[in-house]
Backbone:
């Protein structure tokens, strides 16, 4: 049976279905699950599994400790960018996250490797686990992102142009050059005035407002779940310096990043 679990998750988790079948309900959306399915849960996703045939679950749970200075893992910044892409895909639908069976086989091989290394704790096991999970995250990001591939030449009915623009912005929020109106206009075959009007009509916000708002969401996540300094976060998000980030952040949250982090931690 499926034991009731707390609604609030620490960060996010990946659920592997080794065997069994039934139905998985995530945020009131019910979908069937089967052997070798892989599910992704974001923070505060409400989930429940109705088991038909005996099921074997494995959970990879990612908490804020993963990004603290207490854990010595390589490429922490790269991990965080992968996770942010997973959490903020604008059109992700609950369900199995893998579209390609070749990718699924690779992920399951990495899954087995992680479990063996975790149990045996042989020399270099932490580095091996880190590299394996990095591969898993990258493949999941690729599968989810492909659903809204902004490099495709033909835009299908299910992939509206606004969805592609939003997906491109979210995937490239760290690079200011790739989210400028001039770049977006050229990429999506529109004039600067046309794409600005189109974006405003579809979202109710200007491109600049949307990009800034989204970047503030990423900054907020990093303040809450990582040990990066404000200067580190400013650099990662493409701001000229800490004061520039602080000024923008205060407009959105009515307090500085330092105050926000301190007050949030104290209220937990």
Residues:
């Amino acid at each position: 049976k499926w034991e009731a679990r707390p609604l609030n998750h620490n960060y996010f988790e990946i659920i592997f279905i080794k065997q069994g079948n039934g139905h998985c309900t995530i945020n009131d959306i019910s979908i069937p699950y089967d052997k070798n399915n892989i599910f992704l849960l974001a923070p505060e996703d409400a989930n429940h599994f109705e088991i038909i045939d005996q099921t074997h679950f494995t959970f990879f749970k990612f908490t804020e400790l993963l990004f603290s200075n207490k854990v010595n893992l390589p490429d922490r910044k790269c991990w965080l960018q992968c996770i942010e892409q997973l959490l903020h895909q604008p059109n992700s639908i609950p369900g199995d996250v893998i579209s390609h069976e070749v990718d699924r086989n690779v992920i399951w091989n990495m899954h087995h490797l992680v479990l063996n290394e975790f149990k045996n704790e042989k020399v270099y096991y932490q580095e091996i686990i880190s590299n394996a999970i990095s591969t898993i995250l990258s493949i999941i990001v690729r599968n989810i992102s492909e659903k809204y591939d902004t490099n495709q030449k033909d835009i299908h009915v299910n992939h509206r142009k606004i969805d592609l623009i939003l997906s491109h912005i979210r995937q490239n929020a760290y690079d200011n050059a790739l989210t400028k109106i001039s770049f977006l206009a050229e990429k999506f075959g529109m004039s600067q005035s046309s794409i600005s009007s189109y974006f405003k009509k579809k979202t109710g916000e200007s491109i600049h407002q949307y990009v800034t708002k989204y970047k503030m969401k990423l900054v907020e996540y990093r303040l809450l779940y990582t040990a990066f300094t404000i200067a580190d976060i400013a650099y990662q998000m493409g701001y000229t310096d800490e004061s520039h980030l602080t000024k923008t952040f205060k407009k959105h949250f009515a307090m500085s990043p330092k105050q926000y982090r301190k007050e949030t931690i104290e209220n937990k």
